[in-house]
Every structure is written in structure tokens, then in C-alpha cells.
Amino acid sequence: MKKSFLLFLFGIAFSLTSFAQQTVIKGSVLDGTTGEPIPDVTITIEETGQTVNTDARGEFSFTENVPLGEQVLKVEKIEYDTKRYPIIVNEGQTVDISGMTLEYNQSDKKDLFVISISDDNLNSEDDGLTDNISGLLQASRDVFLSAAAYDFSATFFRPRGLDNANGKVLINGIEMNKQFTGRPQWGNWGGINDLQRNQEFSMGTSANDYTFGDLAGTNNIIMRASKYREGGRISYASANRSYTGRVMASYSSGLLKGGWSFSALGSRRFGDEGFVDGTLYDSNSFVFALEKQFNDKHSLNFTSIYAQNRRGRSTAITEEVYNLKGRTYNPFWGYQDGEIRNSRIREINEPILMLNHYWDISSKVKLNTNAAYQFGEIANTRIDNNGNRLSEGGTVGGARNPTPEYYQNLPSYHLEDPNPTAYDYQLAFAAQQEFVNDGQLDWNELYYANNLNGYSVYALQSDVIKDQQLSLNTILDAELSDKIRLNASINYRTLNSENFARIEDLLGGSGYLDVDAFADQQAGQQTQGQAQSDLRNPNRIVTEGDRYKYNYEIDSDVINGFVQAQFKYNKIDFYVGANVSQTNYQRNGLYENGFFPGSGNVNGFGDISSYGKSEKLEFSNYGVKGGFTYKITGKHLIDVNGSYFTKAPNIRNSFGNARQSNQIVLGLESETIQSVDASYIFRSPKVKARLTGFYSGFQDGTDIGFFFTENASNFVQEVQTNIDRRHIGGELGIEAQVTPTIKLKAAASVGQYIFTNNPNLYYTAADFEYRAPGLMDDERGEKTIVTYGDEQTTALKDLHVSGGPERAFQIGFEYRDPEFWNIGVTSNFFSNAYVDASALKRSANFTQDVDLLPIDPRNQALIIPEGGNFTGNTINDYDDDVANSLLKQEQFEDYMLVNVIGGKSWRIDDYFVGFFATINNIFNKQYRTGGFEQSRRVDYRSQLDEQNNSNGPVFGNRYFYGNGTTYYLNVYVRF
User: Fold this and answer.
1) For residue 954, which of 295, 416, 174 has the smallest C-alpha distance?
2) What's the confidence (pLDDT) of residue 750?
């Protein structure tokens, strides 16, 4: 031991003057086609797991702890085929393998998956029911994560039960997650695949060079002009998924004289409808990146991204609607002048401008400073049927929901009586025939109604989020010694977000009265008080392009600091990291809503005024993480990661009713998260495998939902706080190169994601009375509906967190021929997916007999006893066994999907021509990807009537259905 230590000191002392006496592996990597050096190629000594990256000249070297004897170097880079080079290392000698080549991957298979993933994420709903984290996993070469990203994503499978808000997406080191939801907005960079292949992914909260990270991992997309290989690419794609066609062209200059380099891309994606009826797609994307390398130390890069996206949306449907119209049915569209028109259009216009400075202070210390500015808007259209006109003493107007699958248009509505009459059956049959033969939105009827009434009963409204965000950060990467590396960063983001409703189309009308005709007030009071959207501009007539209904700003500032140290030794590598952050939110109301006039604290419910600035929310957060990799041998490794951190609630979950008041969520807290995972990793030249067990715990979560309930006859905000969850399970990924051309692969995930407590629950709405339980003001004569705050809980404990299947399994193979063609097949099995449970249905409302609740005869207000407990009002025929059956969380059926992928490429002079294609769900399996319970009828008797209705429930669960057989075909030319 003493001798070894002396030899080690001897080597250190003479390392600078006696380099030739070291054991060294060095070399270079060139493009097999152009002969140009390739930077940022990862070189790995498989026996020890040591890695280095090639520099700008394509060169690399290993000088420390170099293993002796027969070794295998793995040479890999995204866009290129991975190669393995066997070498023999002798002590005190240098192994020089300069001139290794990598061939550009002609299949361009990765391009396919980037497109598919981005489009699937674009289709996610605001409530997060259909989003997934597959986009984060694009850059991963891990066997399991590749399966999760490419084959499991169609089912909205979430690795470890996590969604996008639990992962970080960075572009050139700058975080792109939205502050409103915490999720990345994939549409901001959709359709620019050719310039997004350089990506760095880190699993979970493992060591990351740029940020502390999050449980679902961190993906940094590198968009530096100097990092793109010289050349261009033109491609055309045909599909039947989200769009029907896509054309893309890109060109990169490589490094030019004077240190300049540039890249440019343009693409268009289009389609009258995708797999789901009426879902138009219209998207144009442009990128330009320019970089100037001033010298060996300084480089400045500018990147601009504009990815406009306009697409028609669809929605979840009940089983009744599915049985009548099938899984491609979409109620949001109808024909107008012979053309399909969708009433729900989501349009994204948010350009990104980015400036990045790279400073190599020394060969071991680098500083990267970045600035980004993002602006523009996201708009979601829908039909507003609240139009009305002034009349003597008030307003008249308003109309029924025009959606064709509105419950009163369906057969079940006419047959909900336990003993339907012959006339009921006649009405049901007529409704069925009307819905089956048409069942689409009647645009002509909307125009006719507006013309008949002489004012706009209907209008097309956009809910608009108009953001301006400035992001600044600086990132330090320093090698303190041969074994210790330091990463640190400081980040600042400031956001001004305007939120408002806007009239897009008056549908033939001349103007729209900005008054709430559905306000639950006497007609004589409507135009003078609560029904006004803005008391400062009463009875305002708005026209196309005008803001109305609600109008407010959110200002947000976030600053955080991160530091991490990484240590590398012969048998063990480990890291420790920490971060601190400060997050501030403040609402500024630009309208004085009639329901929330004035300002100040009302009976302990906080500031529920609507005009002016709210209380400023401030959250101080911190986190620590650590992990290690123990190298049993070069082939067998143990990897462990753990973290504990707090996380500020996002903007969406911080204000109880942001569109109408300044009220802050009662009991709002930062979420506390802890996690640990442990993996056994095996890697050899022919077999790679990873087996992982994981645990994640969440405390003090917050969630706000929006829905219409029959009991309250109003749209309400459902606020849950103190949400605790537990995610536990295991993952397996394995692949074997059984022959030089055939690879077998398998993946599996088994998890359980459940609520571990009964969260707090309360509700807010425009005509809810905000007062403490037991306080009754008879003089005001207003309808009073109790709000529970911390007084009520919802029985979610041990129910499953919805969001895709908890179990997923894959087995497949890939054949890659030396003549540049390939084919692969995977079979994927999914189970244990659950519907999203209604919190209201599992609250005290379920057991209360509304007919026995005390009502004040003078104003028909609900009399609230002191303490808010309605003892003695429980339904008298309540049965626990029946109730448990009614409240049992629905589990979806198991299903299997089979996918095929293949391609071929040719080299013609200096051009490469090829195609690749996939067919997903080749057996056209019908399956549900998710769904939720409706909260319109939530008491015991209503639910019992719904279940016992032989003709099906009127308000049954709503489901999202997966696509049937779909294809994607891409043809390209690269030069």
C-alpha cells in the first residue's frame, strides 16, 4: 500500500515534464463522409466507465487512472452510428488511435420521434390530463427511457408517474418551463427537429452541469451554430396522426473563415384534420442561429426561434358518445359554407430570442452567460353563449350550450327516469338518429340566432395569455482537480403575463354586451351591480378584437442559485448539490368585477377584490441532492441518487379565482418532495441492462380544477391543498446485440402512484358568498353557499393518481443491414390505468340530503350552522356498501399495441437519399389513454340513479381514446 502511494506521488510530480512515461490513450474522431473532425463525441472506456469528449479539433485523451490490458472504447454521438474499438493498453505507453471515423446515421430515426413527441405534447389539455414527459427523453440512449419516449408515449405513459411539471427543459442552458403551469410549452419549438438533435439528458435529479433539475429529469437542447455539421437537409413527411404533411429544409455552414458559423431552418406542417375528426393543423417554424468565435476563449451565439402553431382541439367523450360515434368523434367542429370549422382552436405565437456567451477562462474553467427574451401569446377559442341585451330593469338573453354532445341532446337524457314512457323512448330515438346522422356543431344556427335576436347571443371567444419574459443566467464549470469538478449557476426570470378574454368573431352580430346574463340575481339588479364584468365601464358593448369578461396581469420574479460538486475515483464516483430560490407572484386586476368590488380582507378569506394589485406572494425554497456510482467492475455498477427539496406552487395554483378576484388560495404552501432511486447496471460490448427501484414522496401539493355542478348551478373552482402522494416502483431495460445485425430489447415498468392522505378541499365561484361558517347577514339578501376551506376534506387516500398506465412492458427486435436498411418491431403491453377521481364526489356533499338543508325563507339562502357542520342532514337511506361501490375508482382495461419501424438509405455521389416509416398500433386496438369523473351530480342519490339507469348514466365518466392504426413516412435528401 505504501509503495503504491509513493508511486502515485512520483507520477504526479513528474506529470508535466515526463508525459511520455504516462499510460495514455489518445486519438481523434472524423466524419466518415467528409473527413472533418467531429467535436463533442463521447468516448467511453467500457471497463471503467471513464468518459471524455472530443474538442473542437475532434481530439481526446485519457491520462489518469487508465486501465491496462484489453479494453474497448465506445465512440458515440447523437446523429451518428455508435462504434466500439478494441485496444490493448500497456503500462507507461501511449495508445494513439487517431483518425477513428463515425458514419452519419442515415436512418434519421431520431427525427421521427422528435416530431411525434412534440405533436403529442402540443395536444395536451390545460388540466394536464393528457400530457406526458416523453419529450424530455428524446436525447436518452437508455434502453428503458427510449422505450418510454418512443413506444409508450402514445398511451400517455408517465415514467415513475411524473408529468412535465416534474422535469426541466433547457435550450442553451436557459430553462423553458412556463411559470404559469410549470410545464414546458412544446409548441414554442415544434417543427425544428433538424436543429435540435444535439441534446444532453440527465435522469431524475442526478448530476447535471446546468441546473439542480427535477424528478423527471433535465434535457438541455444545444442550439449553437458552431455545433452543427456542415451541410443541408430537405425532407417531406406524410402522416395521419396530428398532421397530414410536413416539409422541412435546413442548412448549416460549419465553421467559416473569420470564426463565423450559421444555421437556418424553415418548416411547414399542415392538415385539414388528423386522426381525430376536425383537428386542423397549421404550423410554420423558422430558426436562425449565428455564432462568432472571436478567439480560443470567447464565442458569442445568437439564436432566434419562431414556431407558430395553430391547431384544432378535441375533448374527452362519454362511453355513450363513443358507442354512437366512435373514437375519432369530435364535437367541437361543424361545416360552414362546406368547410370544416373547429370552435376550439389553440394558437401559439411566442418567438424566442437568445444570446449566449461562452468564455473558456482556462482549459479547466468555463463560464457560460445567457440571456433570452420570449414574448407573444397563446390563445384558445371557444363559443360564448352568454350574449344578452339591455331591457327595462335588467337584461335578457343567454342561450343553451350549442355543443352537439351536450347532455340534453343525447338519448340517455330522455331515458333517465326509472320508468320511461313511450314518448320518452320516442324522444330518445329521435335524439339518437339526429346525433348519429349529424352530431356536429351547427354554425348556421349560431348565425341565425344572432340575426333573429338583433344582437349577439353567441360569439367566438379567445382565452388569451400574453407573456413577456426575460431570462438571465450564468453557468460555471470548473475542474478543481483531476478528480473534482464544480458546477454552479445563478438564474433570474421576470415575467409579465396579461390574461384576458377577447372577442374573435361576433358570428354575424354587431356587438356583444359585456354583462353576465347568467348571474344569479334579480333582473332589476343585474346591470347595476354584480353582473358587470367591469364596474368602471358598465354595460359596455364590445366588438371583434376587444378584451372583455376578465382582464388581469400576473407579475412574477424568480431567482435561484445552484452549486454542485462531482468527484471521480477508481471505484466510486459521487456528487452533492444544493440550490436556493426565491419566487414572487402578484396579481393586478384591470377590471373591477361586479361580484368582487372594493378591496380588503373579508371575514378571514383574504383580499377578494378584483381591481388593483393583490397581496404579493413570496416563497423561499431550497433543495439538496446527492448520489454515487459504485463500480464493482467495469461491467457491473451500482447507481444511487437521492434528493430532498421544496418547490413553489405555480401561478395557476396560487390564486383561487384569478379571472375575477385577487383571492389567494387558502393554506397555500410550497410542496415538499423527497426521492431516492437505486440501480444495478450491467454493460458489455453485447449486452446493456439497467434495473432500478424508485420512491418519490410529495407533501403539501396544491391543485385547482374548474367544472360545472348541478348542485350549485354554477361554474366553480375546486381548490385542493395539503395533497400528499407516494410514487413507488421499478424499471427494467435490457438490450442484446445477438449478432452484428440483430438486436433484441425489452423494457418494463411496474409502479404504484397513490394519494396518501385526504386533502383539504373548498370551492369558489362568482356568486358564492365569502364569509366564515355561521356568519349570516340577512340584510344583504344574497344567495349564500358555504365555502369550506380547511373545514372539509376529500376522501382520496389510497386512490390512484391518474395519468397513464402504471404498468408497461415491451419486447422487440431491430435488424440493421449493412446495406443501410433496417426494420424493427415492438410489442407493448399496458395495464393498471385509472380514471381521475372527483374530489367533490368524495367530500361531505356525497352524504348530505340537500332537501333537508336549512334554507332561509326570506332570501332562499343556505343557513350555515356554527362550525359549518350539517349534522343530522345525512341521507336517511344511505348504505355504506353501495356507497363504496359508487365511489370505487374505475380501472381501465389492459391492452397491447404492436409498432413497426423501418427505413432505407442510398448514397448518390455526395448526396444521401433515404426514407423511414413507422406504423403504430398495426392491429387497430381500441383503448383508453385516460379520463375523469364528472362532478355535475355528486350526492349519493344522484349517483345511485346514474348507476341504476339501464340506459346509461347522463353524466358518465369522460374518456380520452388512443389512436387506431397510424403511419408516418418521411423521405429526405441530405447533402
Assistant:
1) 416
2) 98
Instruction: Tell which residue, 923, 902, 749, has the closest CA to residue 813.
Output: 902
Residue with cell 452541469: 209
User: How distant, in Å, are the alpha carbons of 185, 282, 489 from that of 377?
Assistant: 12, 16, 29
Q: Which of 399, 430, 433, 428 is nearest to 414 (CA)?
A: 428
677's CB contacts (< 8 A; 6+ apart) are 204, 640, 641, 642, 692, 693, 694, 695
| Residue 392, pLDDT above cutoff 80 | no
Which one is predicted more confidently, 241 or 576?
Answer: 576
- Phi and psi angles of residue 4, each rounded to the nearest 5 degrees, phi first: -65, -40
pLDDT band at 34 (very low <50, low <70, confident <90, very high): low
CB neighbourhood size of 683 (10 A)? 18
Query: Do 774 and 787 meet the contact criterion of CB atoms below 8 Å apart?
Result: no
**Set of cell numbers at residue 639:** 447507481
DSSP 288: E
Instruction: Order the strands of the 174-175 sheet from edge to edge.
Output: 174-175, 168-171, 218-221, 199-202
For residue 114 the three cell numbers come to 422528435
In which band, very low, low, confident or very high, does the pLDDT at 654 lie, cut at 50, 70 and 90?
very high
CA atoms within 13 A on the CB side of 381: 23
Q: What is the pLDDT of residues 584-634, one digit of tens each?
A: 999 999 999 988 887 655 545 567 789 999 999 999 999 999 999 999 988
In degrees to the nearest 10, what's the CA dihedral of 46, 48, 50, 51?
10
| CA dist 207 → 134, 159, 171, 639, 742 (Å) | 20, 19, 18, 12, 33
pLDDT at 791 over 60: no
CA–CA gap between residue 797 and residue 777 (Å, rounded): 37
d(CA 683, CA 736): 10
Give buried/exposed letters for 879-899 (b at 16+ CB in 10 A, else e). eeeebeebbebeebeebebbb
Q: By the 8 A CB rule, do 773 and 717 touch?
A: no
DSSP 852: G
Exposure letters 288-304 (e unless 16+ CB within 10 A, then b): bbbbbbeeeeebebebe
Pick from 227, 171, 168: nearest CA to 203: 168
Q: What's CA 787's distance to the chain center, in Å?
A: 31
User: Among the ranges 180-194, 720-734, 838-852, which has the highest mean pLDDT value?
Assistant: 720-734
pTM for the full model?
0.86
